[in-house]
Design goal:
about 50% helix, globular, about 950 residues, seven-stranded mixed sheet
């Protein structure tokens, strides 16, 4: 209290108050109704002191306050501030927030879709827009004082992460960087790198959630706390949390009572009494249905809630289940407000499109307070759901994990149906980082006293594993930085080749690689000490045991090599037999998932490329498309044919056969079984082993028997030491190669890219050619392919709709590959141009292989995907939304997203195309206009 202070202390306190009032932070704090947290104050003070900051804090903790202070500082100092976000939806949201605070005249927005007041002192933009401005040397960078990088942990993203590092490395030194990240375990390492490339950077880490999070498991009618005592309230205290013993007991009971046919008692199945007891237990424990979960949470006052389901279709199904169950979460007044808001936000959408988009079913669910949220939805629909959820008019949202990525949609409760999701290749457990990101939505600051994370009971759930996910609050930030063709020409153009190489060596990727070398070097030293001990252990008094061990190893290697050659020879014979197959041949697939009788529909093209990814292909023959006797149409691989295959019989394939029609497959499979079901394939006889007649093996065996150490009584003991010595020596050599490989890795990749670009006349030494300047304007995964198509005039003479179809192949990637059916394509010039694009890609792919540019490492050009060409062509040809979506078999949200990406690349092509003797630039602009209509044009700002 002030009366307890001495005069000197009171004077010092008054001076401190006056000093704080003189700072920019004091008026900034008065803009907020709530007080700032210590980590926010610390970061703001560091910013005002002229330092860069890295703020790592949990979702919902208010780290954007620090970014807003950078905006405040820029306006106070008469400088500019760019506020970057990873996704357009976040940019729109932040733009609306800043306009509300500072007025529309002071805030601009730049995304792929919108350009609003781009010369304003505050501009919100996606990170890619800033990267492109840096490479173009934009005048907008003049007077730039601060850059805020929201969600900077996106630099781990394997597809887009490199953009964040490009921006951080290339920003002018005079710009102060504000990096806002989720809680990551290596924030100090990232901060050290920022300190190296950006100068003095303060690292502020906060692991405290502003709203405590309680973890639960919902099983049957009972909600179990995950932890017995959660006295640390989601990470605030230091007390230890033990897993709830009731939950552990339940898991043991349920997971051990699963019926197992091998569980027999005295030769009989489980007794009826045991089964009855198990049924009674089951009646108490089950996985609650979706409507049941929402009703339960509503009754306990735990709504609004977000249920994360890792499937778009399941999100839509969940909404339907709630509607069928008669669930209503809004009263009449709420329903009326929902209808008014929705009708106002969708007024621009024509009535005929509303029917196609399922508007009326969507509106009915919204009126009841229920909605889905996923990438397949129309962007306008998603934004309406977000708005209604924040207003409290939608109380139950079923969402895919994309909702967890930055959108400001906090809830009181988050529900996870399962702890497993499809990662594009397989079903995998969610990581601690993903669990933290998802459950971070629970608990609304200033509204909720506490947040709740609820995991639904599933058979096989391990509470200890769940506790591990919930208890591990951080995950490491790993660089995904890789040089690209566009990056290479832009860097060389700005800095020259030598300086560009040095700049790339300052990347976070190289920084992490160099640090990891220190630990590897220590391991090499330990291994060398171990080798000395093993060498002593294998010493033999009769002779040189190291020489003897080498002979034994050579023998083993030779035997292995011959076995490998034999396998390769059998594969070659099998591949040769596949090349002889014709449509209509009936074969017997010898092994694999589709073993048995099959009809060849298409012999397939020679392997060696599969979706453009070297390293994932089958090199040794065709991949025949077959119809199995079980009515499945599948494209087989060489792995299904370990032995040669011959046609057992032939039959005619009807011209009307449609592989997508179940009836058509059923009829042809029935005819196949009738024609050849009685034929037994000939068994393949084993050949004599090559090792039996090999002279090298005979020589090695003779030398081994003649060696002095062969007669040693302790020979096998020495051999074990020699084997350990050999294994450790091999491991040590691998570690040494890793050290060599990790040093200058980014620069070496850059050198290979520069060599290829020099070969193609994009670069000449440190000079960028006209071809290179064109490539510098093309951003995207297939930048070099687009540039080559412009150089070879592949798109000359195409109509705007045909050009849109061709450009779609540069951006589209199917969610799931469909080998069975070729995509529908426009005819005429467009089809010829698409074919030429694939041929050019093949040439580039061969060049990349020659220059050792490896797609598996994230560098290089994937094969263009033609799956969206017909949809883009139809839409640009002014076809109706109903017709286009029906033929594309694609959700509206995906269709709009791909159209916008095509529009983005068309804009780049319009800027990069030759100005004289070319129609491409003009037609690219026309194609943009043709695509930017209807649902594609409904993009909102704020």
């Amino acid at each position: 209290m002030t009366e307890d202070l001495t005069p000197a202390q009171a004077y010092a306190a008054a001076l401190a108050r006056n000093a704080e009032q003189a700072t920019a932070l004091a008026p900034f704090r008065e803009m907020y109704e709530f007080g700032l947290d210590p980590f926010q104050i610390e970061a703001c003070k560091a910013l005002e002191a002229g330092k860069g900051v890295l703020v790592a804090a949990p979702t919902g903790s208010g780290k954007t306050i620090v970014g807003e202070f950078a905006v405040h500082l820029a306006l106070t100092q008469g400088r500019k501030c760019f506020y970057t976000t990873p996704i357009k939806a976040l940019s729109n949201q932040k733009y609306a927030d800043l306009v509300k605070r500072y007025g529309a005249d002071k805030v601009g927005l730049l995304t792929g879709d919108n350009s609003v007041n781009g010369d304003a002192p505050i501009v919100v933009m996606t990170t890619e827009v800033l990267r492109n401005m840096l490479y173009a040397g934009s005048q907008a960078l003049s007077g730039l004082g601060y850059v805020v990088m929201d969600e900077v942990h996106y630099l781990s993203d394997r597809f887009r992460g490199a953009v964040w590092e490009e921006v951080i490395i290339h920003l002018p030194e005079s710009v102060t960087l504000v990096s806002l990240s989720a809680t990551v375990s290596n924030a100090e390492e990232f901060g050290d790198w920022l300190d190296t490339v950006r100068g003095d950077t303060e690292v502020i880490v906060s692991e405290s959630r502003p709203v405590p999070l309680w973890q639960h498991v919902l099983a049957g009618r009972r909600m179990y706390d995950l932890f017995e005592e959660e006295t640390d309230h989601g990470g605030r205290g230091a007390s230890r949390r033990e897993v709830n013993p009731d939950l552990l007991r339940l898991a043991r009971t349920e997971n051990t009572r699963t019926y197992n046919p091998r569980d027999r008692r005295r030769g009989k199945m489980i007794r009826e009494a045991d089964r009855e007891r198990e049924r009674r237990q089951r009646s108490r424990i089950w996985t609650p249905g979706r409507p049941e979960v929402i009703e339960r949470l509503d009754a306990e006052g735990l709504l609004p809630a977000i249920t994360f389901i890792f499937s778009r279709a399941a999100c839509e199904a969940a909404v339907q289940q709630c509607l069928y169950a008669g669930l209503r979460l809004n009263d009449d007044e709420g329903r009326q407000r929902v209808r008014e808001i929705v009708e106002a936000r969708t007024a621009a959408i024509p009535t005929e499109d509303l029917h196609v988009l399922g508007y009326y079913e969507w509106l009915e669910a919204l009126e009841r307070g229920i909605a889905a949220h996923h990438a397949g939805m129309l962007p306008t629909f998603k934004e309406v759901v977000e708005d209604l959820f924040v207003r409290g008019l939608v109380k139950a949202v079923f969402a895919t994990e994309t909702l967890a990525l930055g959108i400001n949609m906090p809830a009181r409760t988050v529900i996870l149906e399962k702890l497993v999701k499809w990662n594009g290749e397989q079903h995998a457990d969610i990581t601690p980082g993903e669990y933290t990101q998802l459950t971070g939505r629970a608990g609304r600051r200033g509204i909720d006293v506490e947040g709740h994370a609820v995991v639904l009971w599933q058979r096989g759930l391990d509470p200890e594993h769940l506790a591990g996910l919930a208890g591990t609050r951080t995950y490491p930030l790993r660089s995904s930085f890789k040089p690209s063709y566009n990056m290479a020409v832009n860097l060389v153009d700005q800095f020259g080749r030598h300086r560009s190489r040095e700049l790339l060596e300052t990347s976070f990727a190289q920084f992490q690689a160099d640090r990891s070398v220190v630990g590897i070097s220590r391991q090499v030293q330990k291994n060398e000490e171990g080798l000395d001990g093993y060498r002593e252990g294998m010493t033999c008094h009769l002779g040189d045991f190291e020489e003897y061990a080498r002979l034994r190893r050579d023998l083993k290697d030779r035997e292995t090599e011959l076995a490998r050659q034999g396998a390769a020879q059998r594969r070659a014979q099998a591949a040769g037999s596949l090349e002889k197959l014709k449509p209509g041949d009936i074969i017997h697939v010898p092994t694999g998932k589709f073993a048995g009788l099959a009809l060849v529909l298409d012999p397939g093209i020679p392997a060696g490329r599969t979706n453009g990814h070297r390293g994932f292909e089958h090199h040794d023959g065709p991949r025949p498309l077959v119809l199995t006797a079980e009515r499945q149409v599948k494209r087989l691989a060489s792995i299904d044919f370990p032995v040669p295959v011959e046609a057992l019989e032939r039959m005619r394939i009807p011209k009307s056969f449609n592989p997508r029609s179940p009836q058509s497959r059923r009829d042809l499979a029935s005819a196949l079984r009738s024609k050849a079901g009685h034929i037994n394939p000939e068994r393949h006889h084993k050949q004599r082993s090559a090792a039996a007649d090999d002279r090298e093996i005979a020589r090695l065996r003779t030398e081994i028997r003649a060696h002095p150490c062969h007669g040693c009584d302790e020979r096998e003991d020495h051999a074990r030491w020699a084997e350990r010595y050999h294994r450790l020596q091999r491991d040590t050599q691998q570690l040494e190669r890793r050290i060599e490989g990790r040093t200058n890795t980014i620069a070496r990749t850059f050198d290979r890219i520069v060599a290829l670009l020099t070969e193609l006349d994009y670069l000449r030494g440190s000079d960028v050619t006209e071809n290179g300047k064109r490539l510098a304007r093309l951003y995207g995964e297939l930048d070099l392919l687009a540039s080559e198509c412009l150089r070879d005039r592949v798109w000359e003479g195409l109509t705007p709709a045909e050009l849109a179809a061709c450009v779609s192949a540069l951006v589209f990637e199917a969610r799931q590959s469909d080998d069975a059916v070729a995509p529908k394509l426009p005819t005429g010039n467009a089809k010829a141009a698409l074919g030429e694009m694939v041929r050019i890609w093949g040439r580039l792919d061969a060049l990349e292989e020659e220059f050792k540019i490896n797609q598996a490492e994230g560098v290089g050009q994937r094969e263009p995907d033609l799956g969206f060409a017909w949809a883009a062509y139809q839409w640009a040809s002014d076809k109706s939304l109903d017709e286009v979506l029906r033929e594309a078999e694609m959700p509206a949200g995906d269709f709009v997203r791909w159209c916008k990406q095509v529009i983005d690349v068309l804009g780049q092509i319009a800027a990069a195309a030759p100005k004289e003797n070319s129609t491409v630039g003009k037609n690219a602009r026309k194609a943009v206009d043709a695509l930017l209509r209807g649902v594609v044009a409904y993009s909102s700002v704020g």
